[in-house]
Amino acid sequence: MNRYQHSLSLLLIATLLSLHASSAQHYCWPCALSGGVIGKDTHAASNPDVCYEWMFKYLNNVVPGSDNRGNGVYSVTGDDGDKYSFSLSEPPNIIAAEGNEPGITSFGNATYLLPEPPAEKKGALENAGLRLPTGPHKTPCARTGRAAIINATLLTGEDLTNFSKFTNDWGEEYVQKMSDEKNLVQGSFGIHNVACMYHPSGPCKLADIELAIASAWANNYTNGYVPLMDNNVMLWTTTLGPLLDAYVRDGVEFYPMRWSTNRGDGMAYSVLANPCGLTMVEIASTDVGSRGIEQFNSMPHRRAILEQSSIGNDETLLPPLVPIRISRAVGADLMDATLEFYGAGEDTASLERAAKLGFNTTILADETIDGDRAVTIMLSDDATVHLQLWARQEEEVSTDSPEFPSDDAFVEAKGSNQVNGGQPQNAKDFCKSGTWTVGRFNTFVKKTLETTLSPPPSLGYDVLKPPVGSGMNMFMDTHFSWDCTAPHCEIAAGTQALFESGSRLQMFVSSTHSDKTWMVYSHDPSGFGMQLHWIGSSLPGFDPQGVLVNFCLKADEDGACAGSFNNSKTYSDNETTSSGYGLTNCVVTCVQPLAFLFA
């Protein structure tokens, strides 16, 4: 019977909907590999649904002759007569909805939209800006656009699920534990965009930051390649022909490039586009269809190292679209510290910390050309999605540019958010028309991290009882997931290594698995986010301390969103970004929302 016509039983529906959100993400969680892998790329974006639609329109049709349409889900009628929607994660689709995408899949609705408060209370909360209306890609506290590449790896089912090959190294008990979890294995790679609307973003609203930075590549990249474009993800396909045809047909702005490789073909081509916000997607191939190479800008650096990457040695075996590397604009001042964090340094202490984070790093290339440096690293022997770090020369900021926000402005913005406002008025000029460089952006991110996240605990803290953290911010929402099932990926040691590196963190708990599983969001020295997505061993007695907060997509039990405050300002998805600056936030004074509305 065709699955599109199949009527699912109520028991099956209930089972699917009871699963935790974490089981719907990441291509190697768990995965029968000895090292960690990068399994997801997530970006904070003020309009993530725009990115979502772009992914389906263009990335879902990179194969010549393909005509995939729709929003990545299919519907079935259950035995109860109700409609249920699920991720359409099978060919000919290349991209599918993430299994727990809210307002799109029944799984996502059950996870993030339910239960809803009574209608009167819900309306009052929305009118006060304490939660948002829900719908497709809209939860009470966030806006989302989370898709996944369905088949993003050359690994076979045997590679993904056969943990028995590690019995001698890991022991029978641990191997059995991982084998019991293998129902969660996927071959997909998450490409997520999310707007956690009640997270702070420093003295500027995220939408204003996006507009200011993206103006540097406006008007079809007339300014050429600018350093902040180095924050991107690269995906590999067999030919750029269909994608370029679609871009030209629809007037999509893109930056075409060509660069040399060390492989027999000698040349690779890639096109960089900006689907929404600051999300940059670069699609690469050795084939450009009918285009001439003179249409591609010559780039001096290799934009990816194809050896030991996701594409393997025989491109005829490749799925239609595979992730190959994540790129990050780090800057010269932070390059060495960032390399040490990932285990690409030389001193013993940093290597030991990196090992606790599951990094067994190989430097694949370290190229400095005309003063610009690119370092490509492989974070483990299995991490075929690489990390590329850039330090480019930049021009001095003009004295005519509005002044960068003061330290006090970052402190004042601690309790602000994207709905209720609360950003300091004295930062508004910079936020609207200031000049952004890699150095300024990374400084802005790091200062926001310092003022919104709990500081590392004092030396000598109980490693079995680390603090869970006190909340997130929008820059931590830009991160990659570091997925690992090996026993050396142990969460107490991992959090200790993060604290020793000076990183701040926020912990969440997943109840999907037989043992309580902690997920940790943190950052490297440049401020780039990272999620420890481990389901391996944790030491007996591991018990993080503090008050846990919800994932940003879900409202609290009282129906309001964490981080919201009542200042009599309602929110519209279509409002201008200029609103909200100078409004009082809860750090200064604020009536507790539910006490005010429902005392």
Can you put this structure into words, describing what you see?
With 599 residues, the protein is α+β, with helices and mostly antiparallel strands. The chain has 17 helices and 19 strands. The protein has helices at 10-18, 48-58, 106-113, 119-127, 157-161, 167-170, 172-180, 206-214, 218-221, 241-250, 332-341, 348-356, 407-412, 428-433, 438-452, 491-500, 593-598, and strands at 37-44, 73-77, 83-87, 95-97, 142-149, 189-196, 232-236, 255-260, 267-276, 279-285, 297-298, 322-329, 362-369, 372-378, 386-391, 479-484, 506-510, 517-523, 529-534. Strands 11-8-9-10-7-12-15-14-13 form a nine-stranded mixed beta sheet. An eight-stranded mixed beta sheet has the order 4-5-6-1-16-19-18-17, with helices on one face. β18 and β19 (529-534) form a beta hairpin.
Largest sheet: 9 strands, mixed
Name the shape in a single word: globular
Distance between the termini: 55 Å
**How big is the Rg?**
23 Å
Overall pLDDT score: 88
Q: Residue share in helices?
A: 10-25%
Low-confidence stretches: 1-25, 586-599
- Give the DSSP E fraction (strand runs of 2 or more residues): 15-25%
Strand order of the largest sheet: 11-8-9-10-7-12-15-14-13
The count of strands amounts to: 19
- Assign the structural class, choosing from mainly alpha, mainly beta, alpha/beta, alpha+beta, or little secondary structure: alpha+beta
